[in-house]
Amino acid sequence: MAKKRVNGEGTIGKRKDGRWEARYIAGRDPETGKQIRKSILGKTQAEVRTKLKEALAEATEIDVVKSGEYNVAGWVQAWYSLYAQPNVRKTTARYYKGYIDHHVLPRLGDIPLNKLTSLDIQQFYKDLLENGRIREDTKAKKPGLSSTTVHGIHVMLKSALKRAVQERLIPFNPAEFCIPPKITKPELQVIPSERYQSYLTAAEQRGVLPMFYLELATGLRKGEIAALLWSDYDAQTQTIHVTKQYLFYNGQGTVSPPKSSTSVRYVSIPEEAAKLLEQEHEKHPKNPYMFPSLVTGEMYHPDAIVKIHRKICKDIGLEHVRFHDLRHSFATTALQCGVDVKTVSTMLGHSSAGFTLNVYTHSTSRMQQEAARIVGSVMPKMQER
Fold it and tell me: Where are the beta strands (DSSP E) in 163-278?
């Protein structure tokens, strides 16, 4: 094979079979010190020259030896144990573990890390949206994962591959060039204020009025209201101190800090809610939980609270209202009654008032209409002159 040196880096020559070949040194084996030689084939000299230039640039950016040690499964599992699990919230770590075990490993795990492409990942997202659901009881009705879940998998995978770039295992992050699905949020549902009375009456008949009255009056998350202790209530100031949440994942329950730092908060409650809490505590004065389970006397499983809510809704013929929609009902009612957005945001434990404005656009639009009406009422009537 006739050889031609290219700028002193690698050689290019024509093979007997008519193809062109470039040979170059990709690095040295750290254990033996020997050169790692690689070759590139192409139909034309120009094609091989371009590929050689790219390969030489890549060789200076990655650790050639370490790069070949991992497939996607090996690297993602290493990233999870070394970088993700020790540094994210427990609930986030559990979600990541589920994403990895149920989705990434079965579909991408065998691909060599340095061979993973943006096309592989984009196809992976498409497959998940179309047929990614694991649970058999829901797969028949809806085989694909939600856009929110697939977006979460994208965020995790992108983070894992970013670390691989930093470790010089791959030259660039293939997930950077993918288009994750747009998150489609369900339309907010609220309990109309005129249905509050019937809803709370049904809750009273089921023996859970104090808990659901407090929920409608504060908008606590289900894990937050389940984790409340009697010691979290200050009777003098009539406030609830939210410091924890009770979460379940893969059959394991844990009490952990709330969703974010802003979720640790004091929430003022109405006079009626305070009276109901006092009456509730009188039923079980030695029990530390604010709302002990009617069955076990222990902390309610968050999903058990959701089931009770569904029964209450069924009792009064109220359909398609999730427990989380009670939180939306509180926020919507507060905003429409004139409570300022910053106060509502703080009570909900949102990261910012801007986030609250974005979520409850429907309410703030009505507030703007009312503001326009009020301003219009004091403006001079120019057409009547």
Answer: 233-234, 239-242, 245-249, 252-256, 265-268
Helix (H) or strand (E) holding 67: helix 64-67
- Sole residue written with tokens 């058999």: 136
The alpha carbons of the chain give a radius of gyration, in whole angstroms, of 30
What are the pLDDT tens digits along the chain (385 aa)?
A: 545 544 446 788 888 888 988 887 766 555 565 777 788 888 888 888 888 877 776 666 655 556 668 999 999 999 999 999 999 988 788 899 999 999 999 999 999 998 999 999 999 999 999 998 887 667 777 889 999 999 999 999 999 999 998 888 888 899 999 999 988 777 778 888 889 999 999 999 999 999 999 999 999 999 999 999 999 999 999 999 999 998 876 667 788 888 788 889 999 999 999 999 999 999 999 999 999 998 888 999 998 999 999 999 999 998 889 999 999 998 888 888 888 889 988 899 888 877 777 777 666 566 666 666 666 665 665 555 5
The 3 state secondary structure assigned to 50-65 is HHHHHHHHHHHHCCHH
Please indicate, yes or no, whether the overall pTM of this predicted structure exceeds 0.85: no
- Is the Cβ–Cβ distance between 281 and 251 less than 8 Å? no
Cα four-point dihedral sign 271, 277, 278, 280: positive
